[in-house]
Every structure is written in structure tokens, then in C-alpha cells.
Amino acid sequence: MSETLPETRRSGRLRRPSEPAIALCLLSVGLGAAAFGTVTPARGIVQREFGVDDQLGVWIITLFALAYAAGVPSLGRFADRHGRSRVLLACLGTFAAASLVCGLAHLAESFALLATARAVQGAAAGGILPIAIAEVAAHSPRSRRHRALGLVGAAFGAGLILGPALGSIPLTAGASWAWACYATAALGAVALGVAARTLPRREPLPLPPFDARGLFVLVVGVLALLTGFRTIDYFGRGLLGATVWPFLLVAAGCALAFVWVERRAEHPLIEVTALADTRVALALGVGLAGGVLVMTLAFVAPFAENALHLPAGTGGYVALLFGTAAAAAYHYSGRLVRRFGASPVLAAGLACSGAGAASGLLWALPQPGWASVAVSLALCGAGAGVAVGPATTRLLLDQRTPAADHVAGGTALALARALGAILAPAITVGFLAQSGSQLHHRLTAELPRTIEASALPRATEVSQRLAALGADYRASQELKGVSWPDLDDGRVIRLDSGASVPEGASAELKTADVTTIVERTQRATRVLFDAERADRVAEVQDAVDASLAALAKADEKLARDEAESVKAVAQAASNYDEMGGTLARLNRQVARAGRAANAASGSLASLRSASASVDRQIAELTSGMPGIDRSIDQLTGSLASMDAALGRQRAALAALQATPPSPARDAQIAQVSATIAHNQDARNKAVAQLASLRAKKAGAPAALASARAQKASADGQLDAATARATKARAERNALVSQRTDVANERQGLLDTRSDKEAARDAIRKSRGLVGDARTELAALRAGVPTAYDAALTTYLGEVDRRGPALEGAYQATVNDGFRGIFWVDAGASALGLALLGLLAWTCRRRRAGRG
After folding, report:
1. What is the pLDDT of residues 689-718, one digit of tens each?
2. Average pLDDT estimate for 385-402
3. Are the C-beta atoms of 132 and 29 separated by less than 8 Å?
4. For 186-198, b where at least 16 C-beta lie within 10 A, e where not — what string?
């Protein structure tokens, strides 16, 4: 961009521009730089809101920075062709509108809209910078041009510093991050209004066509570089990754192509021929390192929130420590430059930034606290303030002494800083993304690996019911081949760190902060649990449903069997009762036959007794005749003996009577007389007995004939009675046999009925067991979700108890990412110091050559 005269032409008159125009330019530069940082405190919130990760979310920073860098040369040259005032007004208007759209993207819930608006916002802000540089250079005396251009750098740095604090204000107030965008839009609108009234109108300069090819190659190369850095695995293969080095090769090719295009361009974006001057190249390299250092500010807010346990969005205030140190260093570095020169001051600033990085690595990260964080940020801020302050501008301009090169040099330095600011987030966010990828593993290492549900409700009762079904023969036969659910299977849900993590759970962890990690872990656990719970509950309930279906089918079969058994029992009872009537009739018939048989038997006994009596009479008569004869003979002989004895006794009595009386004779006479009387009496009896025997002997034949006649009659009656008795007994026995058969058949019917009743009762028992099992299984099924929910509640309580360990693990893991950022800061400081040393050595060689 060529220099113009400080005078302006308006309404045909020359007018000296007022200081408000310069102030407006500085305000516009600061506003554009502030827009870069307004979203940095809310980056994590934005990512959570739109569901994107670190590597995608950082594009709201890198797209702004890239568009900013592209807008610096392109819109600067466009402003020279069409008038800086008009282009500045257009840039401010576009900036305000894009800021408004950034806020509206929150309502539209579109990350793509936000990223696009940020790119437009960055391009507009980038267009403001070269116009402001040209305006300030044009309106400043040549003797004060260094200081004036330093003010542009100061405005840029002040905007970067205040941007995060502006972004934290609505978040602290509990409002949306979009209000920071609305505030930026309002400030842009105010600046637009002031610019419309303040800026002088100039006639466009006749300039050659714009170097579109150079801009295209530059943007493509930066995009390739950003994409390559975005895919670096900082904890793995690094630059050797298959998704990294191809983009880096493209970026390198674009760099060579850019130099080739710019050298052949009649009016290049950047005078790359100046880069042939090693001193200029080294000075721009120091400027690029300064851009990297100042981009530390983009991560101050999340670092402070993680280290100091601050709520999300409030870290922007802590960034004021960085900003205050940077502002103070920036202010005093100008004085120090005038006293000691640019190189010593820059060396001190870069060393200070390196010390801040070392403090962060060795103190703030291992022992986070207000003291360690404040010291580290203050040192880094002071170093960044020096790196983007007047010292760098003075260092570059000292290498390009012609006054006409001041504006081009300032523009090149701004572009170098912008490139550093673009590359820094692309590199550093990779460390955060890689550390974020370790969160799941490290956090789950602090947690119990399993969620174990308590015994399912009614599980004991279900087991008992199923055991009872197995012990019941009929039920076991109906349920043969049915597999019962394993009530212990599926009770344990494993939260394995190596397992695939549902996107929702991973997002909960990756978008958490140290103050919300316990809650987010619980929510992530719930997401993991819910992902498994539905399957586990469905598995258990499906198994229970299959068992219930088998039980229902068995119950239907048993119900049919029960109905059939009830019918069989009723039929058996009817047959039993009918057979009971038959048996009663037979009992009556047997009783009558028994009575008839008994009567016949009684008559037969009487007849047999009479016949026996006749037999005895006949026997007596038959056997008594010889005895009578013998008795007669005996009695006859006895009578003869008695008569002889009486004769002798009477002779003896006569002889005694013939003797003289005497007492002895009288006694003997009396004795003999008594004997004779006794013997006479005995003879008389014998005579009577003999007469009786002779009479009996005489009547014996007639008696025997009569007895035999009676015997014949009795035998006839006995035979008839015997025949009747035999027939009666036969009839009775037949009836008894029939009754026995009927009784046996009836007993069989009773046994059959008992069997059928037992079978019916067994079926009812089996149905009862099946019903009990169905009831318990249904209760278990209904209680399955509750059992898992109770287990989750217990597990979440354990997560809460381990909150300090989780916060420590989260803080340490995220600090791994910030450790990479501090290493980048240390590397940029070391690079700047090395370039300064090389520049000093080059200058000494040139002076020695001239000497």
C-alpha cells in the first residue's frame, strides 16, 4: 500500500485531518482485535451448545484469524483503489452485521452460521487494520511515525486483552454468550456512525489490479497448514501421521508458489523481495513468534477455569492478569526501546515469556493455585506485550530505512503476527483435543467399573415357584424344554474404558469443565447406563415374557385337562351312585335269601335232631333186646339165689326161735329177722323188675317197628328239607357272589373316582403353581427397571463421593493439553530469542563488512 499525503480534500478545499480520525482508527483496530477474544471464554459453552468437539470448535477462532490475515492485504489494497474511508465504513458495517449474525446463530442453533459469520467478521476486522495503519501513517509526522504505528499495535494488543473480559461479562451475569456478540455489534455500529461523521473523504487512487492469485495461494496454503496441524496426533505419530504430512506438503508447496507468484506480480500483496534481506525476514519471524505468544490469550480463560476451579465463562476476567501485564509491558517497552534499543527489550520480553511458560510447566500445572497461575500468566502476558509492542515494529523498521517502506513494513509485520495468531490455535488446540480424548479413560479409572443391580424384586419367590414347578410332575411335563430366565444374568453393567462410548456420553465428558465434571460424569454415566439399561431390561423382560408365554400355554393345556377331569369325576360319581343302588338291591335280596336259607337250615336241624332221636331209639331198641334177655336171665338166677338164701335164713330163724330166750338170742333173732326182711324186699323188687323186663321184651318188636316207621318218615322229611336248604343256600351264595362282584365293581368305581379326583386335584395344584409363577414373574418383570434405577442411584452416589478424585483426574488430564500450550509458548519464545540472536549476528557481520 503506497503512502498518501497527510492532507485531505473535501468540498474542494484542503483540510488537515483531526486527531479524532486517528483515534477512530485506533478504536476500530482495537474493536476488531477484541472480537477475536470475545468468544474464547465461551468456546467450551459454544461447543456444548452445538455438540462439536475441540478440534471443530476452535475454528471459530482460527477462521476469524485466517480471514483476518487474508483481509489485511486484500482489503488494504482494495481500500487504496476505492478509497480508504469508504472501505473502512464498509468494513465497520460488515463487522457490525457479522457480529450480530454471530449472536443470532445462537437462536438459529447453527454452528455453520456462527463459523461463517466469524469468518466474515474476521475479514472485516482484517480490512480495518491496514486502513488504520495507512491512515495513522499518513496523518503522523515522519518524526513521530514510529510511535504512531506503535499506537496501532497498542490498540491491537489492547483489543486482544479486553476481548476475553468482554466475553465473560454476559456469562457471569447468567446470560448467553450471544450477548457479547450483540455488544460487539453495537460497538461496531457506534464506530460506524462516528466514522461516517469523522473520516475525511479522499479521491480513490489510480492503482493497478489487485493480486488475486497471490491472495488465493496464500489462503490455500494457510488452510492446508491449519488442516494439517488440526489432525496432528500430539501423543502419537505427530507429523508422521497419514492425515498430517500431505497437508504440510501442500502448505510448503503453496509457500513456494506464493513467493514465485509475488515475485512475478506487478503489484504483489507483499513485497517478498524484501524477504531476501535476512534482517527483514528475521524481524518478521520475531513478529510471527509474537503473534504466537499473544495467542496464548485465547487459552488463558479455559486454563484459569481449570486451574482455579472457576465456573465456565468466568476465566475471561483472569485473562485480565495476562492483559494487564501485557499492557504494562507494552507501555513501558516503548520507553525502554528508546533507551536501550529494540533488540535488548525484545530479548527481555521473550525471556520473560519463556519464564512464564517454564513457570506454568513447573509450577502452575503441578500445583495449580492463584499464586502460581497469576505469576505464570503475568510473565507470559508481559512477554507477549513486549513481543507485540513498539519494540517489534521498531526492530522491523530499523531494517527498512526508506520512509516509503514504513507502511508496507507495518502491513507485513501485522500479517506476520496474524499468521502466528492463526497457526497458534491450530497447533495448541490439538493438545487440548488429544488430552480430551484421554478423559474417558482417566475418569473411568477413578470410578467403579460396574453397576450391579440388586437382586431383582421377587427373584427369591420366582426361584421358589420355578423350583416347585420342577418338582411337580404334571407341570414339569407340560413345561418340558422351557428355559427359565437366569435372574443373575445381566445384573452387572460394565462401564469399560475400552468399550465404545455413546456420542452423548463422550460429549458430556469432553465439554465439561473442572467445576462440572462430577455432574457431567454422572450424566455421562447415566447416558452409558441408559444405553445399556434398555438392552438389559429388554433382555430380562423378553426372557420373562417368553417364560410367561410358556406358562400361559401350559395353563391353557392344564385348564382343558382340568375341565376333562371334572367331567370324568362327575361321571365316575354318577356311576358309583348308580352302582350303589344296585348293591343295595342285592343286599336286600341277599338278606331275604339268607333268611330263607337260615329257615331251611333251622328246619333241617330240627329234622336231623328228630331223625337222630329215632335212630337212637332204634339203636336202643335193637341193642337193648340181648340185654333184656341177659337181665331176665340174671334176675331169674338172682331170684333163685335169693329164694335159697331166704330159706336158709328162715331155717336159722326158726332154729333161734327154738332156742331159749336170751338177750343174745333175741338180738340175733332181731338181726336175722331184719336181714330176712331186707332180702325179701330185694326179692320183691327183683320180681317186679323181672316182670317189667319180660313185659318190655314182649313189647320191644312193636316199639322197634314204630321207631323204624318214624325213622323212615323223618328221613323223607330230612331229604326234602335238605334239598330246600341246599337250594336256599345256593340262591343266597349266588346273590352274595353277585353282590360281591357289584361291590368290587363299585369299589373300582370309587377307586376310579378317587383317582380322577386326585388327578383333578393334581391338575388344580399344577395350575395353582403355574398361576403363582406367572404372578411372581409378572411382578418381577414390572420391577426390573426399578432395580436398575436403584443401582444407578447407588452408583451415582459413589460417583459423587469420588468427586475430588474425579476433579483431580479431570484437572490433570486437561492440564496435559495446557502443558502442550505452554511448550508452544516456550518454543515461540525460544524461536524469537534465536531469531534475535541470529539477527544481531547478521547485523554485526554487515557492520563488520562495511567497516
Report:
1. 888 877 877 777 777 778 778 778 877 877
2. 72
3. yes
4. ebbbebbebbeeb
- Residue 94 is which amino acid? T
Rounded to the nearest 10°, the torsion over CA 145, 147, 151, 153 is: 90
Confidence class for position 400, pLDDT limits 50, 70, 90: low
In terms of Cα–Cα distance, which of 513, 429, 426, 173 is closest to 317?
173
Three-state SS letters, 606-660: HHHHHHHHHHHHHHHHHHHHHHHHHHHHHHHHHHHHHHHHHHHHHHHHHHHHHCC
Q: Do 491 and 456 meet the contact criterion of CB atoms below 8 Å apart?
A: yes
- How is the chain split among helix, strand and coil, in percent rounded to 5? 85, 0, 15
Q: Where are the alpha helices (DSSP H) in 51-110?
A: 54-57, 59-82, 84-108
C-alpha cell at 739: 353282590
Decide if 185 contacts 57 (C-beta within 8 A): no
d(CA 490, CA 450): 11
Which stretch of DSSP H or E encloses residue 815?
A: helix 803-850
Instruction: Tell me, letter by letter, the H, E, C secondary structure of 579-610.
Output: HHHHHHHHHHHHHHHHHHHHHHHHHHHHHHHH
**Residue 526, φ and ψ in degrees, nearest 5:** -65, -40
Interior/surface letters 284-298, b for 16+ CB within 10 angstroms, e for the rest: bbbbbbbbbbbbbbb
Q: Which residues contact 848 (CB under 8 A, 6 or more apart)?
A: none
C-alpha cell read off for 71: 483481509
**DSSP 8-state class, residue 124:** H
Mind giving me the DSSP string for 375-437?
HHHHHHHHHHHHHTSHHHHHHHHHH--STTHHHHHHHHHHHHHHHHHHHHHHHHHHHHHHHHH
343: closest CA among 851, 832, 762? 832
pTM above 0.70, yes or no: no
Question: Which pLDDT score, from 0 to 100, does residue 101 have?
Answer: 92
For position 568, what pLDDT does the model report? Answer: 86
Q: What is the rounded distance in angstroms from the CA atom of residue 368 to the CA atom of residue 362?
A: 10
How far, in Å, CA of 337 to CA of 821, rounded? 29
Q: Which of 451, 439, 507, 585 is nearest to 48 (CA)?
A: 507
Q: What is the CA radius of gyration of the chain?
A: 69
Bridge partners, 14 (sequence order): 9
Rounded to whole angstroms, how far apart are CA atoms 613 and 619?
10
pLDDT averaged over every residue in the chain = 77
**Rounded CA gap, 729 and 738, in Å?**
14
Q: Pick the residue with more confidence: 165 or 124?
A: 124
Q: Write the pLDDT tens digit of every residue in 146-199.
A: 666 667 767 776 777 677 778 878 877 778 888 889 988 998 898 888 888 777
* pLDDT value of position 208: 58
Residue 237 pLDDT greater than 60, yes or no: no
Contact 36, 125 (CB under 8 A): yes
